[in-house]
Amino acid sequence: MQTHLTGRDMITPDEWTDDEVNTIFEVAFDLKRKRALGEPHALLRDKVLAMMFFFSSTRTRVSFEAGMAQLGGHAQFIESRTTQISHGDTAKEIGEIVGRYCDGIAIRQVDWGVGNQYIRDVAQASRVPVLNMQDDWYHPFQALADMMTVFERFGRDVRGKTLNMSWAYASSYQKPLSVPQSLITLATRFGMNVRLTRPPEFKLMPEIMDLAADNARKSGGSFEVMDDFDAGFAGADVVYPKSWGATMTTTDMEESKRIGDQYKDWIADERRMEMALDHSIYMHCLPADRNIEVTDGVIDGRHSAVYDEAENRLHVQKAVMALTMR
Ligand code: CP
User: Fold this and answer.
1) Between the CA of residue 300 and those of 126, 269, 295, 296, 306, what are the distances in Å?
2) Closest Cα to atom 6 of ligand 1
3) pLDDT tens, residue order, the chain (326 aa)
4) Which atom belonging to ligand 1 lies closest to the Cα atom of 108?
5) Distance 238 CA to ligand 1 centre (A)
6) Cα→Cα distances 97→90, 92, 106, 126, 323, Å
7) Cα 136 to ligand 1 centre (Å)
8) Does the beta carbon of 236 sit less than 6 angstroms from any atom of ligand 1?
9) Is the C-beta atom of 59 inside 6 A of ligand 1?
10) Does the CB atom of residue 284 touch ligand 1 within 6 A?
11) Considering only CA atoms, which residue is closest to atom 3 of ligand 1?
């Protein structure tokens, strides 16, 4: 168990060793147990987390803020549009200055070609840990919460279990690539058989694909790309059908929508869930486009793990904050 994590940034778990990632899960399970028993765990008393949002959020905002309060500290909600960031504060200035006021800086910046670099630029200038609340490439805390949920349902040894990370149709907006990219690189580290199922226009970044394949080789799992929506469900233990933009095909979001409109039948429904194993779980990071991306019957049905998944955001985030912001 690796315990020397004070001061570390969490931009992607890909930059944390297996031992370090397992430490996060150990601590997350312990903090979940402590909260269930009402045991105080004020590990970050008097510490302050700056939460900087360039994009909307429900779960991330509420869970980070609640988590800091439960750890005995405080979280500040900061929006780019209501601060001088909108008038030119640079990433370097934010890292330098906010890092002098606060004990951690958490950032959500999902603009394609901007977000990850922005977070890295802040981290370069910051004396305190920088936590990625979602960028254009990664959603690390979502993937950690997703894996924690998989461990809860299937045990810590998930070797040989099949996880189908699938594209699904949505009409609300062209969602980032960050959730599938973070999950396929994390799940392949644990020896899972990971499927990436998507129409050909909805590719992920080549370096992410290479990393997932490499992880699978090292862990004894597998990584397979499929383009048949139904086949992705067949025999799966975990199904995770969610939408993302055709960003690797076009950065024009209108064009991305037009491409996606060809695949309106890619909806997670009861017939498809029946194709997965009887004990299978349905996962989604939320928000979902109900009855477009997934039917009410599936998301509210017996396979759904979406509320446990959302809850686990709190526990993995508290774990990383407690480990890095001490
Ligand atoms: N899953 C997730 O990140 O939710 P929010 O966008 O509401 O934070």
Assistant:
1) 43, 11, 8, 6, 9
2) 57
3) 888 999 999 999 999 999 999 999 999 999 999 999 999 999 999 999 999 999 999 999 999 999 999 999 999 999 999 999 999 999 999 999 999 999 999 999 999 999 999 999 999 999 999 999 999 999 999 999 999 999 999 999 999 999 999 999 999 999 999 999 999 999 999 999 999 999 999 999 999 999 999 999 999 999 999 999 999 999 999 999 999 999 999 999 999 999 999 999 999 999 999 999 999 999 999 999 999 999 999 999 999 999 999 999 999 999 999 999 99
4) 8
5) 20
6) 10, 8, 14, 8, 23
7) 14
8) no
9) yes
10) no
11) 60
In what order do the strands lie in the sheet containing 281-282?
222-226, 193-197, 162-167, 238-242, 281-282
Indicate if ligand 1 lies below 6 Å from the C-beta of 172: no
Complete domains list, the chain, with CATH: 13-139+313-324 (3.40.50.1370), 142-309 (3.40.50.1370)
In the chain, the amino acid numbered 7 is G
> Residue 254 burial by CB count (10 A; 0-12/13-18/19+): exposed, middle or buried?
exposed
Is 142 near ligand 1, meaning CB less than 6 Å away? yes
Pocket flag, ligand 1, residue 262 (CB < 6 Å): no
**CA–CA separation, 151 and 85 (whole Å):** 40
Q: Cβ(92)–Cβ(118) under 8 Å?
A: no
Structure tokens at 250: 């076009």
